[in-house]
Amino acid sequence: xxxxxxxxxxxxxxxxVERRTLIHAQERVQRAKYEAQSNARKNKLIWQVxxxxxxxxxxxxxxxxxxxxxxxxWQGLGDKVQIDKENTTLYRDNNNExxxxxxxxxxxxNGRLGRITLMGRGSGQTRRCVIASTxxxxxxxxxxxxxxx
Length: 149
What we know:
The protein has 149 residues and is an alpha+beta fold. It has one domain: minor pseudopilin epsh domain (minor pseudopilin epsh fold). Helix content is 28%, strand content 34%. The protein has 1 helix and 9 strands; from the N terminus they run αβββββββββ. It has one helix at residues 2-43; strands at residues 47-54, 57-64, 74-78, 81-83, 91-93, 98-103, 114-120, 127-132, 139-143. A 5-stranded antiparallel beta sheet has the order 3-2-1-6-5. Strand 7 and strand 8 form a beta hairpin. The longest helix is centred in the N-terminal third of the chain and has 42 residues, at 2-43. The protein is elongated and about 65 Å long.
C-alpha cells in the first residue's frame, strides 16, 4: 500500500520541488537585473548581469561593463537549475559560454532585448524565464510555453 502511494505521490512532489526551485532562481535573476539597472543609473556607467554554467552549476554576476566577467564576483543559483540554451536569447559570448544583458547610464538595455530561460535539471519540462521586454529596461516573468521561441 505504501509503495503504491509513493509511486503516485513522488512524481508530483518532485515536480513541485522543481517548480519552486525554478521560481526562486527566476526571482533572483530578475533582482540581479534590477540591481544592475539601478547601479547603471546611479553610477552613470554601463553595468551588466552575466550568466554562466560551470561544473554543472548556474552562476550570475552583477558588475560594471568595463570589468571582465572573469574578474566579477559570481553567485550561485544552484545545481538544480540550468540555462535552456535553445530558448535563451541574451547576448552570448561563444568563447566563454557567457550570456549577458547590459544597461547604459540611463538604466536602459544597451540596445539589445532578450530572455534568459531557466529549466530544471530533473525533467527539463518546466521552464521559467525573465524577459528584457523594452529598451527602457522593463522586465517581465513568464513560464513554460511563453518561454519558448
